Queue: 4 jobs
Job 1
Amino acid sequence: MKVAILPGDGIGPEIIDEAVKVLKALNLPLEMATAPVGGAAYAASGHPLPDATLALAREADAVLFGAVGDWKYDTLPRHLRPEQAILGLRKHLGLFANLRPAICYPQLTHASSLKPELVAGLDILIVRELTGDIYFGQPRGRRTAPDGAFAGAEEAFDTMRYSRPEIERIARVAFEAARRRHGGRGGKVTSVDKANVLETFQFWKDVVTEVHRDYPDVELEHMYVDNAAMQLVKAPKKFDVIVTGNMFGDILSDEAAMLTGSIGMLPSASLNERGQGLYEPSHGSAPDIAGQGIANPLATILSAAMMLRYSLQRPDAAARIEAAVQRVLADGLRTPDIHSDGTRRVGTAEMGDAVVRAL
Ligand code: NAI
Ligand code: MG
């Protein structure tokens, strides 16, 4: 199994080191090769996604990605900024499904912005479509408004589009994920739309309903996005798997992340049609704490677990990592971002070492 390791910049290299430590400790037949990406690649070669890095990612079974976006590159033209690397990888690898679990570990319920009883035991999965929707729909641009109440005024416009195959494949990812979470069959998918207002999302709703015929064991419910935003903070445990488009998913996944109270704990996966995937923490490169050895490596370690589950067919090894993380939290070890009274404050490397010991 070939894994491309792309540490990135900011805290990326620090958190990736710990995930690699954990992967090595599993003694699996993994071939790991590292390449620079983002700010680190720009500094070395003048481009955030060098050809050699892209080639390594393409030929790997999976990519483990740290983070990119160090502020020192903020003044570069857009096409050279570190964030272009992740956008380029998504595009070149055809990564259309973004999976973001929001899990509230029993030891961390106090960190949530919601009451502990609302989030204790929370374990939901957001499946966000990543390559379509209003973010990429053409035409788009600025012009002089040709008609309407403001005809003649300067205006801007984007286009919301989804095709049947795009909706079908993301719906399948969601139904399969629901089954996988429930031992191979069952579970519930909530498809989030705005079918009452938008034709794109009436079509989305129709297509998801058709795909559901192949998954009769999985329950399907439809929910308008405004209601979903409300239910996520009112009764988040009512959800199991949420599937939605690019824009609604962008917003709802960040909302769900905050329910768990700790961005440093949240992994993510982005998959293509061949099951190849890019795995990364949900957070960015945290330039404010880079180089201090205090970043929480658990989101990256848990991303490595998702990689074993979704791209490398080793759910057993994934479960071992997840159990080790739970164990370390139960032992009271905390990086500063999740620290509270009565727990032991540790740094990035100490946290990684503890996970290895727990394994
Ligand atoms: P961020 O996620 O990097 O940081 C937000 C806050 O959370 C900061 O206070 C940071 O210190 C803290 N934080 C993040 N990860 C942490 C961890 N593992 N342990 C402890 N604390 C952690 O988001 P921000 O500040 O908006 O973005 C910083 C840069 O990262 C920007 O250039 C942004 O574009 C980029 N970014 C990159 C992403 C990626 O690589 N996929 C995703 C999101 C942002
Ligand atoms: Mg976002």
Job 2
Amino acid sequence: MTDPRLTELTTRVPSLRLLTELADLIHYGRDWTRRWGPSPLAVALPGSIEEVQAIVQWASERQVALVPSGGRTGLSGGAVAARGELVLSLERMNRVLGFDATDRLLSVEAGVTLQAVHEAARSHGLLYPVDFAARGSCTIGGNIATNAGGIRVIRYGTTREWIGGLTVVAGNGQLLELNRGLLKNSSGYDLRQLMIGSEGTLGVVVGAQLKLTDPAPPAQTMLLALPHMEALMQVFGLFRAQLKLQAFEFFTDMALKHVLAHGAQRAIDADLPYYVVAEYDALDDADEQAALLAFEDGVREGWIADGVIAQSQSQAATLWRLREGITESLAPRKPYKNDIALRIGAMPAFLHEMQALLAREYPRMEVVWFGHIGDGNLHINILPPEDMQLAEFIAHCERVTRLLADTLQRHGGSISAEHGIGLVKRDYLGSTRSAAEIALMRGVRQVFDPSGILNPGKLFE
Ligand code: 2HG
Ligand code: ZN
């Protein structure tokens, strides 16, 4: 350990666990984006709130940039440390602290995984409903920092809905207890909500009080094959009107090709351009009957060409794998990712424009569409041709993303629905937020982090 700043830090916080080996710097210096070479100063693994405060105070005095870090499954570069920052990993602070049965609040440290939250909720006979494929690795602190969404937003909303209280260390080391689990609290600005989605730029989330709810009713899972994109919106409208949806996810034949090549089971014979995994309440025969009627209506209208209803939990898992395995199956190809949001009503016109734009601009590249159509959230992954250099590929994607951002702006959409802005979409923030809004956001950042040490360069420079 040669850097004198680190010697000073360990003198100041003698109990602190600090990693400086190259392998650790690489491991902790990046997230699931693989565009930036990891290059942190070191990795701090505090074990308590007091240690986090001491690190932040020291960093603020010494002007050392910090990158708050959870499971690093993010897709927008929010947890990348490529400029000599100190990674502040919450990994060791991963305890479930307690459960308040009256208020149905689960108190956790920030480094607990989403899966551990699910298990803890289940052990109390309740549900923490935010869910997505990275559940086993992502942590609740990162979920809060990005206002993570996932596959059940259509029913339960995003992370924002499920945070009753937050414990946060602000940029000057001050400890803030925000909202304290209150259901009603009309006492001025809701700083808890400001923290959610702030991507580690306003404070380091060290703990949270999570709201739990009743377990979801028994569900049935259906896989549908659809002949064209219009059918997707039509089937969504039909199912939403006739069933109590828990999830409504789509993917294209291109996504299916990759996920099958990655080991998923086919599960449906039809070879069509669009697929849907729908999950809906199936409490009794009436619910099952309603699902069959909705399916038949869709077939009669020509919107549904084929379908499978899971006959068991394990078959449901097989159907879900087709959707949830997509990101992992694409990862070896290092895709360029877009995560866009629109009002559902704006979707058909936008999709037409986008398909024309992508066919024109990406004739040589595979474009993989999937996502949460019922939330107005599409994931558009672009795969580079095998013979294209990464730099050329990224430059091309950036140019097309500008066109995408312009198109989104015209349709009133957002350049990030649930992954965050981070480094990946920083240059496009202005397509979603007005200049006045960005100026206010900068002002807010300045108030919470006057020395500018918290995740600098993320969200905006
Ligand atoms: C999902 O919905 C995730 O599966 C990842 O948000 C999306 O890989 C992506 O682009
Ligand atoms: Zn998603």
Job 3
Amino acid sequence: MSDYGADLMAEVKAKNPGEPEFHQAVQEVVDSLAVVLEKKPVYRKFKVLERMVEPERVIMFRVPWINDKGGIEINKGYRVQMNSAIGPYKGGLRFHPTVYLGLLKFLAFEQVLKNALTTLPMGGSKGGSNFDPKGKSDNEVMKFCQSFMLELSRHIGPSLDVPAGDIGVGGREIGFLFGQYKRVRNEFTGVLTGKGLNWGGSLIRPEATGYGAVYFAAEMLGTRNETLDGKVCLVSGSGNVAQYTVEKILDLGGKPVTLSDSGGYIYDEAGIDRKKLAFAMELKNVKRGRISEYADKFKSAVYTPVDPKADSNPLWNHKAHCAFPSATQNEINAKDAANLLKNGVYVVSEGANMPTVPDGVEQFVKAGILYGPGKAANAGGVATSGLEQSQNALRLSWTREEVDNRLHGIMKSIHKQCVDAAKAYGTPGNYVNGANIAGFLKVADSMLDQGVV
Ligand code: NDP
């Protein structure tokens, strides 16, 4: 079996050179599936995993647009349609200068398993551009979005592929993208999620990923008869996921003490309360400012800029009970993981996708802490996107309470699926194995049913 896993990884690396994040994501799943593939040789016979690591379709295109000075700019656009075994493709769009094909393949691969865990009928995809919205005017962002969607609109649709937001793609970008889709296709359909409430969006969608990650942490704590009440929480990022993670931590009685962006982080020992959170949200969502301004406003906070030469991130080196990485991939390195454990952190619920390097994951699992990997813990976002699609199809809107209750129920179900699968395959309490196995089985069995396609 180990030969099978090693051979498969060698093939993935040879066929997808220069894509380390994709290799990393596949390796973790291959490791988790060793027992499953041994017990059920049918998956090997029909090369299910070999097919799952190959995208069904990759679309790459030029995105030309005109900046405010009249200059021509050219970006790259992508959509990776990874797997449609259990439903139409679904996954976010990321606008960030680091975006390239390998990054989107890792995200799309994770998305397939994540979407399977949500209990909703959604395949997996991911897309985006190396466009950087930071420092651009609203007009420039609109021009870019319109050019991006002019091409993307040929490849998506409500029963084909439904994109949503991710890093750099929030309510403003979804609005510009939706407007252009509607214009080009001459139809008003639920082709994007994360839409504004006046034009088909769902209540709780903006909150869903952060809320879901905190619900997942609460479920994990529940296995030890504990709650979030009184727990000190480290949160990274200050975007969509981080903001609503902080809000839900406050709802459940916890004490968030950090926020960050790519420039640095703030540590507020007194706690980030609702008033301070409102300031941070206005700062990030409206003024589009830097998190350092939080420390200018609130004297209880200390700002530490990023030190590019440092071997670890000091954000993860404070005494705390829980950590919610909510910024980006590989933001917790091996030393950070060791620092978290040293400081007493015993709950890690990943709002971001693959925020912990493999060595860090291994440390968490070995230490036996409550470690919820991103594809389980942050699945509340895409699950609520699925609920937005359902409301669009029914042409009605559910109340805030109704959507929140469904989200909460889905997070409980994901937690249970992870716990049950981990136990059934001999590693009780290992949420990494649990999430990978439960997600894989649903997709793999559907692929077997549908033949070699
Ligand atoms: P946002 O763009 O709203 O916020 C991202 C935050 O992370 C910002 O504070 C940003 O700082 C910081 N950040 C991004 N890239 C880096 C980097 N390379 N180094 C340091 N800091 C960085 O994105 P979201 O909150 O939507 O997404 C955050 C994470 O959650 C991502 O991993 C995403 O894939 C994941 N996720 C998001 C979902 C959603 O529904 N939005 C669903 C599931 C997962 P700065 O502004 O300085 O760049």
Job 4
Amino acid sequence: MDFSRKAVCADGFDFVAGIKIKTADELKLMRSSCAVAAVVLEEIGAFIRPGLTTMQVDEFAAEQIKRHGGKSAFLGYRKYPRHVCLSVNEEVVHGLGGGRELHFGDIISVDVGVSYRGFIGDNARTFAVGGCGVAAQRLLDVTEQALYLGIAAARPENRVTDISRAVQDFVEGNGFSVVREFVGHGVGRVMHEEPQVPNFVDRKMNDRLHTGMTIAIEPMVNAGQPGVKILKDGWTVVTQDGSLSAHFEHTVLVTDGEPEILTWPAAKLSKLKVA
Ligand code: MF3
Ligand code: CO
């Protein structure tokens, strides 16, 4: 039976090759959790400025998530000890808020996962602190553009590798490199569902995409070599060569037509929350 043509699957037929297909009711909830995640990310972006410590940013994030009635999807996940991930300059992902002070010209990757009404919304963006140099800005632009090219490939006639290829070709064509050790993922009631969505072509991860799948696409791009290592805190991932790194992420719904970006910040939060 081919489920791929259906807008949403009927109850009881909601997995294809182990990948969850969201029902219309589930998508309503998912839209609201993603809208909260998107708004919180925007609020953090507006808050960031030179002179703050990353711990102050984490505390602000916690307040905003709470104010919207959500919960951090990261706090406590595999014992993760903060509300959001804050990764500065050579830090790639999973950075822990702490005493590090933000300076003008730094870049900071902010990853926000929110649990709301039983579903997760996951998104990330790298911000310049006040402003940044042209080399850093080019890294941000290429990484963000790679995310949108990946999203454009998230269509039911495609496979996961089509997303991966779109991201990798663009990033490497611009002289940067994609991180191999961390990948995007299906997202829904839990943060990490099938399939894995690498930012490089991996023939082992060649699942077909189907309408109704919700996936987090998240290129992590290094200005230098692709290698990373984990600091002694057990979480913070940094580039091996000390080069800058950027990270952009959206939660996306595969549809019969254009992919729908569920963590688009302009989503009408108040409308979605009462739906
Ligand atoms: N967006 C990241 C991911 O999808 C965030 C996970 S951070 C963790 O893996 F702390 F929760 F692990
Ligand atoms: Co994610």
